[in-house]
Amino acid sequence: MTIVGVAMALIGALWIGQGLGYIRWPASSFMLSQRVWADYGAALAVAGLLLVLLARRYRR
Questions:
Q1: 24 phi-psi bin (left φ>0, alpha ψ -120 to 50, beta other)
Q2: What DSSP state is assigned to residue 27?
Q3: Cα 35 to Cα 1: distance, rounded to the nearest angstrom
Q4: What pLDDT does 19 receive?
């Protein structure tokens, strides 16, 4: 569960970078507006970090 949370946080960080213009993808990609990418990335990163925290709390 921790690995999934870390992967979600990293993918979310990439989406935030793309939404803010730090990462350039080809114009032919499935690009939404940059603000939407940043919002989705932030939500995904927060969900991933919460998943990591939950995994650490309920570790057995």
A1: beta
A2: T
A3: 29
A4: 77
Interval 8-52: pLDDT, tens: 999 998 888 887 877 776 665 566 677 787 888 899 999 999 999
Phi, psi for residue 40 in degrees, rounded to 5: -65, -40
Tell me the torsion sign for CA atoms 51, 52, 54, 60. positive
Residue 41 is which amino acid?
G
How many C-beta neighbours within 10 Å does residue 14 have? 17
What is the rounded distance in angstroms from the CA atom of residue 23 to the CA atom of residue 34? 11
